[in-house]
Write the structure tokens for this entry.
Amino acid sequence: MIKKVLVANRGEIAVRVMRSCREMGILTVAVFSDADRKSMHVRYADEAYHIGPSPSVQSYLNIEKIIEVAKKSGADAIHPGYGFLSENERFAQRCQDEGIIFIGPSPYAISAMGDKITARKHMLKAGVPVVPGTEDKVTSDEEAIKIIQDIGVPVMIKASAGGGGKGMRLVRREDEIIPALRAARSEAATAFGDDAVYIEKYIDSPHHIEFQILADRHGHTIHLFERECSVQRRHQKVIEETPSPAITSEKQRRKMGEAAVRLMKAAGYINAGTVEFIMDPVGNFYFIEVNKRIQVEHPITEMVTGIDIVEEQLRIAYGEPMRYRQKDVKPKGWAMECRINAENPDRGFMPAPGRITFYYPPSAKDVRVDSHIYTGYEVPPDYDSLIAKLIVKGEDRQECIRRMRQALSEFIVEGIPTTTDFCQEVLGHVAFVRGTYNTSFVEDILGY
Ligand code: ADP
Ligand code: ADP
Ligand code: MG
């Protein structure tokens, strides 16, 4: 088995990955920037190395520095977490070149599913429905206008390299095309260093439903069922649950799961990954993207399946066959996750970094908190605003909601604004309780 893992990430996911390593008797190496000297992942690891200044381009995105630390520390594998270098083909390739195991898909699979435009092409070939739209990137304003007139508004202008809800603009009227195009391009250039955009039909009030996939090198590809992620602000998830209340028949569930498995097989995908779909109000579903990494909301799947996804990632990366077949995966109960972000919901969910003066997390049967914060911790302004994930399980959806509401009411973070009260508001809303919400819920129904 792998002996030492360098975790090329920070925050809750770095701690989460190290936890599974520890359980498996694997040593851990942390890397950290200036801003993260006192971060929990640094304390948690067996060894820790400073890799540069706070801005991520000079630290967590510095490929050569991270490779250098891996070699110096004798790590035989690197886990990239999510964000940062997790879906970077060049990084996966560099690991391979240095004989370091990259805990994720191959550079080839990353590039095949790499950007959204390429992934869409692959999906069409695999016979998976994609949202109607352009096949290639749009190269000029005139071309964009013509395409949008052909497809008809509303459309989404989307960055091919997009992620985390960035680089995406909804166009409802033709006079919005040019400003939306500019905005999507410049946001994408800043966030991803690539301003390529394409155009997709806007599916009105859809559900975001995704399937967790595991695939090994021995020809097994399975799914661990779905996650409903339609509670979103700025196209980014805030609350997730499994199963999805929007999938009302086992037949539909099977169809989507099989489509997800089929397309990952077609791409030669190995390790853990997620296939994201949007589903319209009458149940048509369309592929939107593959997340080629561990996902923020993976714990809800772990809660209902009992499978430690990070552990499977490590075993698969080492070349072992998976320990599960499709028939072994029998989800039990209902699970939800609330993302606790250092943000102010009343100010458009603006990031609100600062010092946490008091922290007290809830704890109970079937309650899990994945976090890296503590009393006195200073949330740096340089990174993602996620500070904790509250995950709970119940026998059924009602029990799950009740348990989550109780846990949220016990979740204390003082000193900075967070999304706990916002989550509480969502969980108390009749549309959420009935399970009839979709991606327009936060904006149109709650009015944020
Ligand atoms: P998930 O897809 O796991 O549900 P998010 O979409 O919220 O989660 O993304 C998780 C984190 O990864 C966020 O910090 C987000 O900014 C970052 N991220 C996601 N995709 C990319 C990408 N393509 N490039 C850079 N960062 C990304
Ligand atoms: P990211 O890489 O940022 O996660 P996605 O392509 O996964 O981007 O889309 C994020 C969210 O944006 C979706 O969950 C959905 O709510 C919304 N979205 C994306 N594409 C469309 C579309 N064509 N029509 C309607 N909503 C969309
Ligand atoms: Mg997505």
